[in-house]
Amino acid sequence: MKKKIVLLSSLLIAVALLMGVTSCKKSSSPPVFGLSTLVAQLAGGSIDMNGATPPTNVPSSPIIVANFTVNVLATSVTSSTVTLVRNYDGASIPLTVTVAGSLITITPQAGLGNGTLYQLTFKAGITSTDNQTLGAFNRTFTTIGTFVPDGMVAYYNFDNNVNDQMGTYNPSTGGIIDLTYVASYKTSMGQAGSFNGTTTLVEIPNGDLMENTNSFTLAFWVKADSTKHGQFVMGLAGWYGFQFEIAGDYSSCKLAAQYKYADGTSGSEDLWFPADGNLGWQGWTFCKNLTTQGGLPFLIANKWAYITCRYNADTKVGTMYINGDKMKEQDFNLWPAGDPKTTVTGLKYNGVTGGNTFVFGFIQDRVNPSIPDAWAQYSDPANNHFKGQLDNVRVFHKALTEQEIGLMYNSEKP
Question: Looking at the predicted structure, is the pLDDT value of residue 13 above 60?
Fold first, then answer.
């Protein structure tokens, strides 16, 4: 009996020792190197970027923090191992990436734009401080809002105010005259600015800074009331800066602008769209023919239209789009040899000193007009003041691609 008790006791001791060793081994095993959480930080919280459904509300200037199960070896985290790629054009976004313990913080070096799909990738090669290697993985997310690419310098959404939503080009004190607000072209777009065709004006100081750039894009929604014959929708010293105009019979529209030449001088040129397919003008390479559809009024008279005008300084090509479709294109390279327009480097304000106020509702500044002619004076209500509505006016210091213009239109259209 004693032998049985001794054997049983020995067996229990052996089992206890084995369990103790096993327990020690388990507690000493390091955690497997992997992602714990991935969030976009906000002032009042965070957005989970590691859930089953990719988020669609990430800010356009996000700070993304990845938390791992163990500390990360900082030297293994480079621009090659952490990447952010824009979906629609495959562009790789420059990042600032820092490591602190188990955290990798990722900050895009420029705004990502709105309504845009991205893929964030952690590639193989990232290691932990205890020499574990991370397996490659990726996560997708979409920035908040309707699609707007990066590079925007001014934005007016007319939601019961006409402030620049970028914060730079706001109206002057007393510079909003007889502007009212009405429902926009669809409910999600809120309000639009309504112009009475005789006195409505919005004055924005330092408008020359909007224009003194190489590449340039102007995009806006407009509903022009065709009972008003001739419309100066917006302007900065007329053609001494830039201005958008609809002809009195609605047969054409144009962006007139001042362009700078390589020798320091400048001159004006109209990005003019007559909607008749005519290519008989200097440098014209495309002009859509709308005559069988009723001409330009078919697109813009008494209805909302999305107009985009761009100038690409690299190619010296200007293009106009309406509702996402190319309507007009012209190429300064096709001017005769020796013509200064073949040396165009970008846009330039060349109006009178102190007349650099950009305005909605007319062609130029009411106080210091660059164009002295009577028809260009704000004080005459019979002149071509704009009558209709404006919404979502955007200025970019870059030439948007045709794909970006199409995406903007499709994300906002009724």
Answer: no
